[in-house]
Amino acid sequence: MTKKNVAIIAGGDSGEYEVSINSANVVYKHLNKQKFNPYLIIITGQHWYYLDEESESIDIDKSDFSLLLDGNKIKFDVVFNMIHGTPGENGIIQGYFDLLNIPYTSCGLAVSALTFNKAYCNRVVASYGTNVAKSVHLIKSQPFNLKAVSTEVSFPVFVKPANGGSSVATTKVSDVLGLETAVDLAFTADDEVLIEEFIGGREICCGAFKYMGQMLIFPLTEIISKKEFFDYEAKYTKGMSDEITPAQIPVEVEIECKALSSELYQKLNCKGVVRFDYIFNNEAIFFLEVNTVPGMSEASIIPQQAIEMGISLERLFEMMIEDA
Question: Which CATH number is associated with domain 112-130+201-323?
Fold first, then answer.
């Protein structure tokens, strides 16, 4: 059997750079070396390079996404996308690989672009009848009045970059006095900002993967942050949150959440492994966001759910490549 060359791409140009590198290293570690030749490719700005096991870097030829190694030109059979944020989660890198006809493990260009922008994604998801938080979408180049905005939503609110992840530059604001500072912070990370009403309740995550035509819905995880909300520190600092898999929640909530995740996966035309995040309370389940390139470190939520389901990381990553 001929081994496939797998480019594990990581890095990117957002505040999730380190998270991406960690995820990629886990994929590299667990990928079956008897079936695949994995290559860790760092993409940051205009500098794209292969990083070997001695941490030596060799530039990638962007004209065909190839690598010249020891006089041999290496072309890749598949790309394992582990870039969280831009350009790996917003459609940019997907368009590049589409042009080169190289398959990849994540959602396609249009789906990635839509789901990465929380403001636009919420509108589409709401059109399917799914509950979403009330929000206001600000665009940096267009005039806005924060006093007027404060009358459109009820406090407390979350102020966040519309295009972003891992809660980078995200603030919980309790009144109008804190709104300007929070908006300014969010605009340092993006040209669009989402001001979204806080919804009280319990946070749950659901992994989903359509593998060889069959929908796989992973066990749910409940997130219990030890901070005011599940921010960057709570997500990536050991001991700052509890992640309980499987979630200890009412059976009817579990059934509804899994059914909703399956429905949204298919209606949004997702591909590969994605993670849906929700809040539920006595009123309903509310959609928060969909992560189309979820973290794959050994402590990340999707690996926890896969292992609970009886799927090893080696097998999960192999399935993702097979699907691509």
Answer: 3.30.470.20
